[in-house]
Amino acid sequence: MCLFYYSIFLLILLIHANNCLILKGVTISNWPFVERYQDRNGNIAYDGYAIELIDKISKSAGFDYELYEAPDGKYGVYDPQTGRIDGAIGEVLTKLEL
Prior knowledge:
Its main location: membrane. Residues 1-17 form the signal peptide. By secondary structure, the chain is of the alpha+beta class. Helix content is 31%, strand content 36%. A hairpin with a 4-residue loop joins strand 6 and strand 7. Mean pLDDT is 79; it is low at 1-17.
């Protein structure tokens, strides 16, 4: 069950642009929750239970969102040698440091 919550996506940044809230998040592909595919126009898109959930939430709460996949495709593991966390959690922490 814990994997479900992590696979929804991890929040990075909430910004206000053109009077519209845009939520930016990082995710990993983890079927059936999040699955990456290419649409007819060749654009990267996502589908799955978690995507359907965030679609419904965004429509009822009135915000837009953008997703991208963690570069290494991992949830995130702490590396004691570097003192850093990789994966989706590392992406969140890196963006929050800005």
